[in-house]
Design brief:
Number of strands: 21
Order of helices and strands: HHHEEEEEEEHEEEEEEEEEEEEEE
Radius of gyration: 33 Å
Distance between the termini: 50 Å
Helix content: 10-25%
Length: 388
């Protein structure tokens, strides 16, 4: 920090004559520009005022030195920064490198397989170092025309479906791992190219769902169901407060008013004591007798950021919700029709966003759903949520 401060001081002192030179040049250009406009005005003005304006223009032109420039410092007067290190520092660095560094003939994980998916690529990787015990994997990708890689997955799984892939476009992938109990990541695998020729299913199917949704378009804003003992509602029934009642259950929407292609937003107005059963999400149907949306035929996020699909917790997790947090749900249809491979004939691609993070996954159902219910559940009082 001390050396950087010295560099800053030298830069600040050395830039002064150049700044002054720039100001003089800008002033001269501005003066010449004003004089040019005055000359044009004199030439194109009225005949009666033309002689007077031309005289004024001539006097100003004689007193302005348009052909002079301020002196620019010579190169020998311009500082040239350099860094010098004592030999003893190199010895210290060498000792630290030998103590903490390792040498590997190849990265401990490598990309293994690319499987084309509609609008996506299933990427699989494997461990190639028997002595390496992985704790987490980190997958990155970029378009072949891009200059920077970006993270697309961090977790313990050895495969991941990368979505929103343009068909017939090459993408580069690479993967690394973090050893058990370590903070640093391993070297990257050799980058490999993957692509898909399959276009997303959702383009035509979304049009079908859009037409269906127009037929069922709601005429009222989002509303919670009134009358549940554990919750108090605002006059417009779009704000729900978990009260002091011991009764606990899921508060559902008044009707299945959420349609694919729309954005559903929950905003946390106030927070209470969190519980792992807390949930915000959507479901196919109202099912009484549950104290959470962490069940079958529902997707939700808990107040601690855990994401549940059909009652099973996902590996990817979002940040915990706090006062003022907004959680959004976006869905699009990616499959409509028979599908024996995954046990369902209706698939929705779900995007849940919270605190500038998002998770994307496919939700497989055994029935076609034009509209869905939304709901929430809180175990302890004090939670207040607005839906819109």
């Amino acid at each position: 920090m001390s050396l950087l401060q010295e560099v800053d001081a030298i830069e600040q002192e050395s830039i002064k004559p150049l700044d002054e030179c720039q100001k003089l040049i800008e002033h001269g250009v501005s003066t010449a520009d004003d004089l040019l406009r005055e000359g044009e005005s004199a030439v194109h003005g009225d005949v009666g005022q033309q002689n007077e304006k031309l005289c004024s223009f001539t006097k100003k032109a004689l007193h302005i030195q348009l052909d002079s420039l301020p002196e620019v410092p010579s190169l020998v007067d311009v500082p040239c920064l350099s860094a010098q290190l004592d030999d003893c520092l190199l010895t210290i660095l060498k000792n630290q490198i030998f103590r903490h560094g390792t040498v590997a003939s190849r990265p401990p994980v490598q990309l293994e397989e690319f499987v084309e998916k509609p609008g996506g690529i299933l990427v699989r990787w494997c461990k190639v170092d028997d002595d390496f015990i992985p704790q987490d994997y980190r997958l990155q990708y970029r378009k072949s025309t891009a200059s920077h890689f970006e993270d697309v997955y961090v977790g313990s799984e050895t495969e991941f479906i990368v979505l929103h892939i343009d068909p017939n476009v090459d993408y580069q992938f690479r993967v690394c791992a973090r050893g058990d109990g370590r903070q640093e990541w391993s070297p990257w695998s050799v980058p490999q190219i993957g692509h898909t020729t399959l276009v997303p299913h959702g383009t035509v199917l979304l049009l079908i769902l859009f037409i269906l949704s127009l037929c069922h378009q709601r005429s009222t804003p989002e509303e919670w169901t009134a009358g549940l003992e554990g919750y108090s509602l605002s006059s417009r029934r779009n704000i729900a407060l978990r009260n002091d009642s011991q009764s606990c259950g899921v508060l559902y929407s008044k009707a299945p008013t959420y349609f694919c292609g729309q954005t559903l937003t929950f905003r946390i107005e106030t927070v209470g004591q969190p519980d792992r059963r807390d949930s915000l999400g959507v479901c196919v149907e109202q099912q009484n007798g549950y104290d959470s949306l962490q069940r079958d035929k529902a997707v939700c996020i808990s107040t601690n950021g855990a994401v549940f699909v059909n009652g099973k917790e996902m590996t990817n997790q979002l940040p915990a919700v706090t006062s003022g947090s907004t959680v959004t749900f976006d869905m699009e249809v990616v499959q409509l029709g028979p599908s024996s491979n995954e046990g369902g004939n209706f698939k929705l691609r779900v995007t849940i966003s919270s605190n500038n993070r998002e998770v994307v996954f496919d939700w497989v159902l055994d029935q076609c759903c034009v509209s869905l219910y939304f709901g929430c559940s809180f175990s302890y009082p004090g939670w207040k949520v607005l839906v819109f």
